[in-house]
Amino acid sequence: MNFKRFGRPAVIAIAAGLALSSCAANEGDVAITGNDASASTLSGTINGAGASSMGAAQEAWRAGFQTANPEVTVNYDPTGSGAGREAFIAGGTDFAGSDSFMSDEELAGTFASCAPGSKAVDLPVYISPIAVIFNVEGVDELNIDADTLAKIFAGTITSWDDAAIAALNPDATLPATAITAVHRSDDSGTTKNFSDYLGQTAPDVWTEKASDTFPFSTGDGAQGTSGVVSAVTNGVGTIGYADASQAGSLSTAKLMVGSDFVAYTPEAAAEVVAGSPLVADRAADDLALELNRKTTNPAEYPLVLVSYAIVCNEYADAAQGALVKAYIEYIASAAGQTVAEEAAGVAPLTGELEANVAAVLATVK
Asked: pLDDT band at 38, cuts 50/70/90?
């Protein structure tokens, strides 16, 4: 099917129609999500790699899918978004997980696992807030605005008792401890979302374009989400950013949204995504989102990431394509989203996004 770049009402209508036709076509299909695993006819191995942020969700998805489809093995290597996209483009994996959608340059190239002349698409499957995590002796709560956060990670605010931090936290006893700002050392979609947020909300300070690579030579780098969490946990006067599902027992900051300080919640992250449009001028079956970072609504938490499953719209190996399609259909379904919500505490896809992803997957082969 050739899609056009429709507005949201039209996309919903298309998704609804495809969902009905898909149900009829898929009766007795290969992917079983209930308890009757004996009905599954799927077999083989699916290899994926990419975003470490959704590591916990991928573990849960793999377990659920393999239980329902016992002749299938699903592997997922949380190497980071950039490495995951590179591996998929080169044909080393069957799909990629990425906290940032594919760039125009990536889309202009070829994809080794895809059929000649076909491309890959970005499908949202995971929504999570990015937590600003910190470890400062005597400080359990922290309010921060975008300018101050940008200055901390750009290296122009270097002490916890800085006047800018003190003004936002008048009731806190801030120590004269040096700030160690921990960022991702690998190419990371979490970094791209973090820098996109700061670039849009503190443009006078954060002058670099959003990128998977941390743009400044300040602070300390750490590999993967777990590396950042470990560095903040074990350091002194540390601050970092990580998928909220992996923040653990670390203290987390409230962000200024409008005139209020807002703590992250999955629901507040989902609200931002629900109000964000599709990225303009991309293929109609590519569901990359332009996240609304500048919201002033305190019901929304703008420092959010959307992780995408990146798949071929047509695979060179049709049998492998059927395997991947079945797995992504599962993780993007209501059942799969509930599994992720229970495993990682993240927000499920909105009904609209779920329908749109299902509509695109109906055309994957």
From this structure: low
| pTM more than 0.90 | no
Superfamily classification of domain 8-128+278-289+306-361: Periplasmic binding protein-like II (3.40.190.10)
The H-assigned helical ranges of the chain are 8-25, 55-68, 81-89, 104-108, 146-154, 163-168, 189-201, 224-234, 266-274, 318-331, 334-344, 351-361
Average pLDDT of the chain, as a whole number: 89
Report the SS3 class of residue 342: helix
Evaluated on CA atoms 208, 55, 347, 264, the torsion sign reads: negative
d(CA 78, CA 188): 11
What CATH code is assigned to 129-268? 3.40.190.10
Say if residue 116's pLDDT is above 70: yes
Q: Tell me the pLDDT band of 5, cut-offs 50, 70 and 90.
A: very low
Using alpha carbons, select from 49, 50, 48, 52 the residue that is nearest to residue 246: 52
Provide CB contacts within 8 A for 96, sequence distance 6+. Answer: 48, 49, 50, 81, 84, 85, 87, 88, 309, 310
Confirm whether 8-128+278-289+306-361 and 129-268 share one CATH topology: yes
Q: List helix spans (H) across 178-317.
A: 189-201, 224-234, 266-274
